[in-house]
Batch of 2 targets.
Target 1
Amino acid sequence: MKAKDQVLSLKAYKPGKPIEEVKRELGLTTVTKLASNENPFGCAPAVKEAVMDELDRVSIYPDGYAADIRMKLAQHLQVKPEQILFGNGSDEVIEMFCRTYLTPETNTIMATPTFPQYKHNSVIEGAEIIEVPLMENGKHDLEKMLHAIDENTRIIWLCTPNNPTGSYITDEELITFMKKVPDHIIVAVDEAYKEYVVADDYPDTIALQRQYPNLVVTRTFSKAFGLASLRIGYGIAHEDLMKVVDPVREPFNTSRVSQRAAITALEHLEFIESCRRKNREGMVLYEAFCAKYHLYYYPSQANFILIDFKTLQGDEVFDFLLRKGYIVRSGNALGFPTCVRITVGSKEQNEGIIQCLSEWLEEIGIDSDRETTIID
Ligand SMILES: Cc1ncc(COP(=O)(O)O)c(C=O)c1O
């Protein structure tokens, strides 16, 4: 049996330890996971009722075209229904674009570090991966990404807010970039954390699509909408482009339950509003903590913050917090070895984590002469 060479080079996704296992191993009664940027407030209560109701029909295949959620979302976004492509999470939308456009003769450009699925799926298609390091402030180096374009480039990935730095691309930066990208190259803008953004100059990518038909936007119901385990995300693009990609889609790639949950979630946008507000309040707490202990951090528009402990390894901070019952993400595997990425949680969770870290930093004596630096 001979598998594709590029697949043999891949490693299977290694999930973090399940909460139950951490509890057992460390003898803890409560363990809080703030590692995957999920919504600490769950989802809108009405979504749960809709899901329960839909369970009566699980023996029947879902509508493969996802007509009801398609109409609802199209209306919400003010786009044509044919401009939307649903995926089993936005992960699958990324995968479908790679399957459609990438071959071993092509290349694709992305930042590094960024969300790993662009690279993962591009490797499977055998495409050449061109990775452009983030700038020191955690932002995409759009100039260098433009310079990397050649005649084989098919897709450029922009993650904004970027995972794991939380930095975003401004309206002006995106427009300047789009003007310079040849119109046969897809620019895929991943807006998984869009609902958390509060910056005034965050671009209206859907409006920009009218001018730039090569602009593809991906979003998800997994984050602020709180439906991560139901797996539903979507792409928005020009209908001609979606016509090309849609045949790649598996016939029933989103479930009946996820479609119904997403419809109900869109009927309760006040939930998103309150999550955005609480997320900001939490972010302010982390920023104040960083300032107090002279820690570097990347200003984030998302629901996570990447904090640089400089003199400590991310793994050490991770281990310390794990023993206290908090699962965060060590920056080691994310390309930031002295950082940890913490998902902003509930007020109680944020205060708990900050208290543990503060006590620890004081105990080990952190260098307080250092200048506080916001990497901006
Ligand atoms: C930037 C980014 N894009 C996409 C995704 C995928 O989300 P999902 O497949 O749940 O929609 C994630 C998940 O962490 C992410 O961080």
Target 2
Amino acid sequence: MIIVVGGTKGGVGKTTIATNLTVLRSLEPKAGGQRYEVMLVDADEQGSASDFVLQRNELLGRAGFTAVQLYGAAVRSEVLNLKEKYDDIVIDVGGRDTGSQRAALLVGNVYLVPFLPGSYDVWTLAPFSELVREARVINPDLVAYCVLNKADARGSENQQAADLAKQEAPELQYVDLPIVNRRAFRNTGGEGLAVSELKAKDKKAIAEMEALYRYVFGVTEAPKGNRKGIKAKSK
Ligand SMILES: Nc1ncnc2c1ncn2[C@@H]1O[C@H](COP(=O)(O)OP(=O)(O)OP(=O)(O)O)[C@@H](O)[C@H]1O
Ligand SMILES: [Mg+2]
């Protein structure tokens, strides 16, 4: 499966989510006991996903997955070349509507757009909903989701943001599995570890990321608010 984590503006958690999903997939045992072959594509010139991998290699000696940097049209062509070699590919694209993002959407199976709960942040989703509509002309099976990140642990703000997202970005199906604003997630980037690998275990953070992982990779059924959700298709 090819998963593109992108959309919206900077700092919404694209790299945090892309790197955590990559690690979780690479650690998941397959039926025969083997591991999934996973590739993480850093398609953002800022290089944060690559920094994550550097930290990870330094700490663990090996990342457990392949990491490459690709930009612009090469995101599409190289992913097409490499996709048979990997079970799964996760692409972390930059925040702006770059060529990399458009190229990734032409080859992706799933587009996952994290967003923050404030109204100004939800409004930034609309152009990406439009981008999905355009990408589907060439890639009609593209499944597109948006998910709240840095959400409130409690309160009605999340629900309001979800309702607004459904209005503003009809092509992005809202996934009712918010990732809450937690220090554990802030710590993952600098350490090169997924939240489940950190020494100090934050059970809620781990459960949130694992639930998103299981849903996006089609391991579990749709969450409560998504009963009519489309299941992500395997490659
Ligand atoms: N759920 C969360 N709780 C707390 N902090 C978070 C959470 N998600 C991300 N962060 C932190 O927010 C900052 C931005 O996250 P991240 O780099 O993943 O965003 P991004 O969308 O990839 O940014 P950019 O657009 O710059 O690539 C980082 O410091 C990260 O550790
Ligand atoms: Mg990033």
